[in-house]
Amino acid sequence: MMIGASNLIKNSFYAVFVQGVTLGVGILKSFILPILLGVIGFGYWQIYLLYVGFVGLFALGFNDVVYLKYGRYGLHSIALKEG
Predict the structure, then answer these.
(1) What are the pLDDT digits (tens) for 35-51?
(2) d(C-alpha 9, C-alpha 28), whole Å
(3) For the stretch 54-75, what's the b/e string if a residue is b when 16 or more beta carbons lie within 10 angstroms of its beta carbon?
């Protein structure tokens, strides 16, 4: 199946447009947000973004191990400890 030239141009325009919007939002975030939050607040915002970025790595593999260990059992057949 061959993609038409007009479809390729339209999809390329969408990709460039989205990248431009992303660049514009990033620039606004870099210049406007520090003015609104101040230096200390912007520092806390950056630390928050750093921590949120690493949250996925902290749990890396834990849910996979639980799924592999207990995935073949039904919910009522798993022995749960109480207390």
Answers:
(1) 999 999 999 999 999 99
(2) 28
(3) eeeeeeeeeeeeeeeeeeeeee
